[in-house]
Amino acid sequence: MIVFDEVAKRYAGGYTALAGVSLEIRHGELVVLSGHSGAGKSTLLKLIPVIERPTSGRVLINGQDVSHLPRAAIPYLRRNLGLVLQESRLLFDRSVFDNVMLPLVITGHPPRDAARRVAAALERVGLEGRGKEMPAGLSGGEQQRVAIARAIVNRPSILIADEPTAHLDPAYAADIASLFRSFNEAGVTVLVTTHDASLFAASRPRRLVLAKGLLTEDTRPTGRLAHEEAA
Ligand SMILES: Nc1ncnc2c1ncn2[C@@H]1O[C@H](COP(=O)(O)OP(=O)(O)OP(=O)(O)O)[C@@H](O)[C@H]1O
């Protein structure tokens, strides 16, 4: 479970990206977060792996308050998170295989089992047998699949993706959206931002909308508002 408790985030320079967000995401939910450019979507995502920290309020992940998590504990938290963020670009001087292997190298995974996991992750995203290729030779959609394979290779229980369908042709974007749906159906909690929520509509996600740092909409697949269901 991910909990945002009255979370505000003000960046140096005084810009308020999040103005007080309270939210609970249950295990196994598929959540699509939308909102205009600058609404605070990326900021909200970055608070979960502690890339950013809230100015006030708390973020809890499976009961642990990560808002003040010591730096040394952050890698342990991230082992359980799959991240496809704007910053998490592929290494273009490394093969597809090596890109996906990276998180396992960082966590010191035994090499033999790591290789097996990389192969499984590539198969999971439809890139089986493509490990030896270099990212530059792949299409944008395929590169995004490599980034997703890298995010899931540690078998995280939570997958977080920032605009994973941006800059993709509609057909590729739809493929990526259905890939997230399949992870969710396998039990992974998925939180994804998009400018085009209709891409994920077939997955009947919970829909959140941010506007100027405030949550303005929270609709569960039933069509009911989250606070109505909780009541
Ligand atoms: N590191 C930073 N330092 C200062 N201001 C920042 C920083 N990161 C984001 N901001 C500002 O905070 C606001 C929210 O940014 P954020 O990236 O969270 O929005 P967003 O909804 O993800 O936008 P987009 O859809 O364009 O990616 C923006 O005005 C942005 O300029």
Automatic annotation (TrEMBL):
Which keywords belong to this entry?
Amino-acid transport, ATP-binding, Cell cycle, Cell division, Cell membrane, Membrane, Nucleotide-binding, Translocase, Transport
Molecular function per GO: ATP binding; ATP hydrolysis activity; transmembrane transporter activity
**ABC transporter domain span:** 2-231
Give the superkingdom in one word.
Bacteria
The keyword Translocase is annotated on this UniProt entry: yes
Q: What Gene Ontology cellular component terms go with this record?
A: plasma membrane
Q: Which InterPro entries match?
A: AAA+_ATPase, ABC_transporter-like_ATP-bd, ABC_transporter-like_CS, ABC_transpr_LolD-like, P-loop_NTPase
Pfam families the UniProt entry points to: ABC_tran
Q: Which SUPFAM superfamilies match?
A: P-loop containing nucleoside triphosphate hydrolases
User: Per the UniProt entry, what is one GO biological process?
Assistant: cell division
Family of the protein in this entry: Belongs to the ABC transporter superfamily.
What function does this protein fulfil? Answer: Part of the ABC transporter FtsEX involved in cellular division. Important for assembly or stability of the septal ring.
Q: What is this protein called?
A: Cell division ATP-binding protein FtsE
**What species is given as this protein's source?**
Thauera propionica
**Organism lineage string:** Bacteria, Pseudomonadati, Pseudomonadota, Betaproteobacteria, Rhodocyclales
